[in-house]
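Input/output pair, single chain:
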Amino acid sequence: MKKLLTVSFLAFATLALTGCVAASIPTGNYVAQSYTKAEGNALLGEFSYLPGEYGRVQPNQIQNKAIGPILLDDNVENLVRQATALELRQSGINVGNGHLRLDGTVEEFLADDVGYNVDWRYRINYRLINLKNHTTLLNRDYTVSLRTPKLAASLSDIAPRINKPIAQGFKQFIEDPEVQRIFKENQ
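Output:
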């Protein structure tokens, strides 16, 4: 009986830990989700990921609370920059032209993945800078909190759950009346 319990425990521990093995999550298939339309032009500027810069996590790692790290196949700042470019185009903003530059700083990207669901917290600071006179027209944080199911069949099933907070952060940005006004007035 003791031997059976030991074997059962080892089997359970092995299964539990294999779910926590670090593997890179593919992020190259981001699909723009914005339906809010805007008019204007923007240059994509610098993007950064503060938890990665401060050494709290690796540059390609999302902060999380469970045992295993959530590693992406690219740095978080690159994923968010690419997603922002796709969302801007989807919204009607002409990316690569004009005198407005959009910078972004990911201040927090956390997955509380202890339990049955994943509670996401994502905070990004977007800045719109007028390059004609070097003034900051907008410097604002956008915060997303949402819950997604934890179960996923494969690593590629996790990517859409990672993309969701990014898309929601952009949605808050593009729907901000101040952002709409700035784009319209600076065409």
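The chain has a mean pLDDT of 86. The domain at 2-185 is CATH 3.40.50.10610 (Rossmann fold).
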